[in-house]
Structure formats: C-alpha cells, structure tokens
C-alpha cells in the first residue's frame, strides 16, 4: 500500500507518479562525500592544539581520528570539532601529540 500525507490530485486513479513530491526524490548526484585527510602535525598545530580540516563535516561527532601507530580516538573525550576546526586542548590528546605525528581523519561532508 502507498500512503502519502502530501497526496496530490491526480488525473486518474492509476496515476501514482503524481503522488510523489519532488522533495521526496534525491537531488542530483550523491550529495555526501567521505573525506580521508592525512595530516602531519606542525609545531604551530601543536602549540594551537588544533588543526583546520579541508571541509566542514556534516556531523562533528562523526569525525574519526586515527593517529598513525596509535589507537582510534574518541569524540568529546580526546578531541572536539567545531565547524572545520578539530581541537584537543584540555582533552585526551593534549600533551600526547608531537610535531610530525600523523593523523588520519575521516568524516562526511557535502
């Protein structure tokens, strides 16, 4: 059965195509992209306790951080993301990262 809260008037009962709103259909090609960003930390990144991501993540808590040679880090425990800035001041990564450490950062963006 097909139910629509936005039922439209149709020319005939068998014309189901009129029952679909354009807002129900995907808009263009996939609007979401997965980004894998590799960052080699600089002394200024360490001093600022933050890095700027190449894009703004759709969901900051969905950003995953993998230090090379380390274990995956946890959002809000080891780091936070605001807009396109990933920071770790006062969190789990604070004091552990050094210049030239490499981070793989994975997130979704539009």
Features:
mainly beta; 3-stranded antiparallel sheet; globular; disordered N terminus
Characterize the structure shown:
The chain has 110 residues and is mostly beta strands. It is 5% helix and 26% strand. The chain is built from 1 helix and 6 strands. The chain has one helix spanning 43-48, and strands at residues 33-40, 50-52, 64-67, 80-82, 85-87, 102-109. The strands form 2 sheets. It has a 3-stranded antiparallel β-sheet, with no helix packed on it. It has a 3-stranded antiparallel β-sheet with strand order 2-5-4. The two termini are 34 Å apart. 12% of the residues are buried. Residues 1-13 and 15-20 have low confidence and may be disordered.
Short description:
By secondary structure, the protein is mainly β. Helix content is 5%, strand content 26%.
């Amino acid at each position: 059965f097909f139910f629509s809260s936005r039922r439209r008037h149709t020319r005939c009962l068998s014309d189901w195509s009129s029952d679909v709103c354009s807002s129900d259909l995907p808009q263009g090609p996939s609007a979401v992209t997965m980004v894998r960003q590799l960052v080699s930390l600089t002394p200024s990144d360490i001093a600022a306790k933050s890095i700027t991501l190449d894009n703004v993540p759709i969901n900051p808590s969905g950003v995953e951080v993998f230090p090379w040679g380390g274990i995956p880090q946890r959002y809000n425990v080891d780091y936070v993301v605001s807009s396109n800035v990933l920071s770790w001041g006062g969190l789990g990564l604070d004091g552990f990262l050094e210049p030239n450490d490499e981070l793989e950062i994975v997130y979704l963006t539009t």
